[in-house]
Amino acid sequence: MTPEFAPATDESLPIWPVWKDDPIPPQAQAGDWPERCGFTGASGETCLLPDGQGGLAGALVGLGARDRADRQRFGFARAADLPRGVWHLAETPDGFDAEQAALGWLLGQYRFARYKSAPSPAARLVCPDGVDAAKVQAIAAGEYLTRDLINTPASDMGPQQLEDGARDLARALGASVEVTTGAALLTANLPMIHAVGRAAQDAPRLIDIRLGDGAGPALTIVGKGVCFDTGGLNLKPGASMGLMKKDMGGAATALGLLKMLAETGAAQGRRIRVLIPAVENSVAGNAFRPGDVLTSRKGLTVEVNNTDAEGRLVLADALTLAAEEKPDLMISFATLTGAARVALGPDIPPFYCDDDTTAQTIQSAAMQVADPLWRMPFWAPYESLIEPQIADLDNAPSGGMAGSITAALFLRRFAEGAGRYVHLDIYGWQPTAAPGRPKGGVGQGARAILAALPRMLA
């Protein structure tokens, strides 16, 4: 589906957003109707207003408490809550962000209908006055792409299908694509991508997209594309394997961000590269094993103490390749560690960055656009945890402590050479429906990076 606003019409009905426990706007002329209906303005509440002649005069939509940090509150105004037709925002209360409301509406309308028919949203919104409709629709379209890719099961979203999706996007944006597949990865000196993916029937590959040229500042985005993760020979339990179609959430977010950058105009004057190591971590006689020592593109050796810590291995070769061009800014997105979710839960991905100015810019932008991130440290004293006895690096330090930090430190070893490096350890999944975020695949961090980019790459 395509996220679109409705054209303005004289027949559209008004929506009054209301903070919890605030007075009903007098323009709504609702009398005691909302009170009789039990409407309090709580997040998710909707109250339809009669016109006294058997029709509708409009609707009230609850925003919840002002002092809560709920995101995309207006995204709860779904088609299920409002009758079919065209709606517009009436006078809005203080502290109400019309652009975020418009985006929340579009994100809340998302449906994944590839395998099961889902009715199109019946209620449509006119873009609020003063809001750039094209920009908001482009951001929503990038998020829709990310969600579609993550929600598609591995039977239809293996490395080949992820490549197909990347090629379709590149074609639409006028970008170039090069793909290195199978044994050619060894010739191209990308050995760890090959090692992780060689046991799968769908060959491992590196997808390399370039958009823009010239002398503008360079941004390289690396997205983890593990299309399904069995855990390899360190096989995951069944319950842990159930969501592993989302282990390519980093790649999906990278592609969604590329679409946002191009279609909002943020890519103009910049050189953008997207690298996606696309593999399936499978079990077969030629699978890489616990105890193996792999030699990376960078020349560093890595002892494999857990084949289920494969994402950092494929990212390592891609980051090394990316850093060789010395981009001004390099960003990696990866569904990398369960430790990040234990620390911060599913809603707040940690990010890592050594440059304080860049980190503060990202943190500020994340809060501004309601795409929360939380800075975590590249804690140097933990470097010894990723240094085993018989190789340069350990892909899975024992002990289980600081798992997200040690994974980030591992990646940083391969990002040396880039002007600045930012790593986001995302979850990529919405466990329960929330405003603007139906249950299922979800992008995290892309809108924050989009908002921060003008200051990071001036």
UniProtKB/TrEMBL annotation:
Listed transmembrane segments: none
Protein name per its UniProtKB record: Leucyl aminopeptidase family protein
Listed GO MF terms: aminopeptidase activity
Organism: Paracoccus stylophorae
Keywords: Aminopeptidase, Hydrolase, Manganese, Protease
Domain Cytosol aminopeptidase, chain residue ranges per copy: 306-313
Family: Belongs to the peptidase M17 family.
Tagged with keyword Protease: yes
